[in-house]
Amino acid sequence: MAGYTMSENTSNFIERVAIIGAGGNMGRHIVSQLLQTGIHTLTAITRPNSTASIQDGVNIVRIDYTSQDDSALVSALQGHQALVITLSVTAPQDTMFILIRAAAKAKVQFILPNWYGHDPTNDALCKDSLLLDRRNAVCGEVKKLGVSSYLLMASGFWYEWSLSGGPDRYGFDFEKRSLTLFDGGNTPMNTTTWPQSARAVAKLLSLKISAVDGNDGSPTLEQFRNSAVYISSFRVTQRDMFESVKRVTGTTDADWSITDETSEQRWKESMAEIKKGNFSAFTKMLYSRTWFPNGDADHESSHGLHNEVLGLPVENFDEWTTIAVRMAEENAVPWVMH
């Protein structure tokens, strides 16, 4: 396996994990879940001027990890077996590659790049979502360096974030009580909550690394290297979401203004805006393409899930809809990604 020999790590488990973005939306959940395993030592690598709150029990190293001089970053990564990256969409484009190269210099065995969502094996979906070149560059860089292995989390969009984040995502505007259905609202999609995504990361990094101590049939981290991990909280349509919303808000169809649009037309319109330089259309483009009624967002049907392999729990749909509605009421989610 790339970058790994038992002589370098006498334990067959990941023990030391470094994380970028530990105080962010996704990062804080990953930190919480990794701490709960009781088997990981965590290091949060954060910028010197960051004011993000990081949980107790985490070692904090403050360095400029965007600097082309990566000597401090390499030093901070020394001795770690895994690097988890959760960057903001506004982070400089070359930051990911600085981190990957530093991880290789530090001989980090596994990297979880900033990929939590689309099925990374679906070239058409990734291309139409403007993610294909990024995927190829990131994965290609890891492979070219030949030290680390990457792990990509195919989770679909985050449920509570997307449901509460305005009509460009899952079609809901809770303030106006309006719903835009895409192609009738009957397209199934896999969608995952933040905690479930974080549990998957923690469970994955808690697997034994390889089957060197006998092939007993139990899952190993090695079997996922340089590939996708398919997880989900719910496989639902917009209409399923709407039924859940009505249950938790005590509303009926009559309380909502409902319209219908085609996902393809929405995608074409937003892509045209992006080509004109209007990147505020990115959110609409990204979600509209994923809602195409061709099964692209239903990775459960096309690939199956690793939920059972990772021991992920079954979550309560209405409970998370309730959380999303509250987030919408609190304006917790910006409607536009830049």
From TrEMBL:
The keyword Nucleotide-binding is assigned to this record: no
Alphabetic keyword roster: NADP, Oxidoreductase
Record flagged with keyword Chloroplast: no
InterPro entries named among the record's database cross-references: NAD(P)-bd_dom (IPR016040), NAD(P)-bd_dom_sf (IPR036291), NmrA/Isoflavone_reductase-like (IPR051609)
SUPFAM superfamilies: NAD(P)-binding Rossmann-fold domains
GO molecular function, one term: oxidoreductase activity
Chain ranges of the NAD(P)-binding domain: 21-111
Family indicated by similarity: Belongs to the NmrA-type oxidoreductase family. Isoflavone reductase subfamily.
Protein name per Swiss-Prot or TrEMBL: NAD(P)-binding domain-containing protein
Record organism: Pseudopithomyces chartarum
